[in-house]
Amino acid sequence: MPGNDRFSSREFHPGVRRMCPSAPLTALKAPPMMSHVPELPEVETIRRGLERHLPGRRIRRAEVRAPQLVARPDWESFVIELAGRTFRTPRRVGKTLILDLDSGTLLVHLGMTGQLLFQDPAQALPGSSVGGGRDPHAHILLHHTDGTCLCYRDIRKFGKWRLYANHEAPTCPELSCLGPDPLTPDFVLEGFASALRRTTRHIKAVLLDQSVVAGLGNIYVDETLHRCGLRPTRRANKLSAREVRGLFEGIPGVLKEALERRGTTFSDYRDAEGNSGQNGPALRVYGRHGQPCPGCGQELRRTTVAGRTSSWCAKCQK
Ligand SMILES: [Zn+2]
After folding, report:
1. What's the topology of domain 5-176?
2. 150: three-class secondary structure by DSSP
3. Which one of the listed residues 65, 85, 95, 162 is annotated catalytic?
């Protein structure tokens, strides 16, 4: 039965051990400051994994152990409405996962530490739990008719789930406020240049603004600005046409490379099959302040821009 946090954490699940292959202890012990919000490459990697498993699977029962994660509708209605629904091919815009159903559309935002894991008892390691078990961080579970499960884990519980009717989803606030996704043809130079011309904000703040470009966060903004040779504090409307074009091309370039390495894992991010991303060692500046710049060897600086810690090179970035 679905229930609140306190009740569910005390539920007894006979025959289910706590250890789960998708929940290594390192993830549970990582300090909060090492968490970072999954950005476009991480969310797209998860989507691709779900695409292999979800389409055609039917939800037998939805289980909500942390009701505050369900933003729409109320969690009881969420549970009732999801029963019997069948998944179609999952989509994504920016950092938002769109899980289409035969009736209804689920929007999932992973927050800081959300993990969306597909669990199959036929593939599980001995002693591992499928369907949440007593995992204290498994908060939403979609149990399928064939025994598999979509398990949502979230240590810090900043994620959000929303269920819309199919016709409501395209115009819902969470999607309609998003700018173009830089890996789609919606991302065009003219629109991007126009958005930059209209604001005097720091370029870092503009790139973090999801209504300008959807999908970038602190990691890939720092990486893109270094690649493009731009200081994070440059005023957006002061960039030359050449610099704007460089950014326009650099953003998808950085994202695609990270996607090829299945995203960046610091502590919590896992793909739909529980694997870490491999992009961490390829990061050139993010989190590397105090270390030599890979471009020139000068020590990378750290400053706060747009309220976010930023790593950059004073020599390579003008
Ligand atoms: Zn440098």
Report:
1. N-terminal domain of MutM-like DNA repair proteins (3.20.190)
2. strand
3. 95
